[in-house]
Specification:
196 residues; alpha/beta; two-stranded antiparallel ribbon; 6 helices; globular
Length: 196
Amino acid sequence: LRPFGGWPAAARAAALAAAVGLAGGDARVRLAVLRGDAPTILCEADGPAGLKELLAALSAERPAGALDLAAALPALAVRLASRARLVLVTDLLTAAPPEVLFRIAGRGRRGALLHLRVPEASAPSPGAHWLARDAETGDEREVRFTADVAARVAARAQAHADRWAHAAREAGLAYLPFAPTTEPDVLLGRLVRGGP
C-alpha cells in the first residue's frame, strides 16, 4: 500500500466503509486485516456508538508482512456469515489470479472491492523516477520511466484492473477504484450507491 500515500488512503476507505456499515443502527461491523494466509480481527463494533473504537483500531494498524491472497480469501470466507456484506480494500498488487474472489462469493454475500490505484505507479508520467520500496519485504529499487516504459506500465495496470473488475462483478461485488486523491465524499457516494 505504498508509495505515494497508499496506506492512509486505504485506511480512509476502510473507515468510510465501516461508517456506512454501522449507519444501519443495529448493524455489526467486523474490521479485519489480511496477513500471511489468514485474516486477523482488529475490532468488532455494534451500531454507530462502536465507530470510535473501530477508528481507534484502524488508526493503530500499519501494513506489514507478505500476503498470500489466494490462501487468505478462502480463510476469510469460512468466517463470513451468510448474507454478510464484505468490503475488501486492497491495492491488488498480488500474484493471485482475480478468480480467487470466487472463493468469497455466494451464500447471499454482497459488497465491494475497493481497488486502490496510485497514479504514480499505475499510470506513471514519462521521465518520472522514484525509489520504490516494497512495504512487505523492504526491498528498494530505483525506477525510471521512459515514454515507452510508462505506456507499457499503464497498459498492464489497466488490463490488471479490468480483469479484477470483471472477476469482482462475477463474484457479486461492486468494483470501486479509487486513488489517494479521491475525495472522501466521492468515495462515500460510491460506497452508498455500490458503483463507480
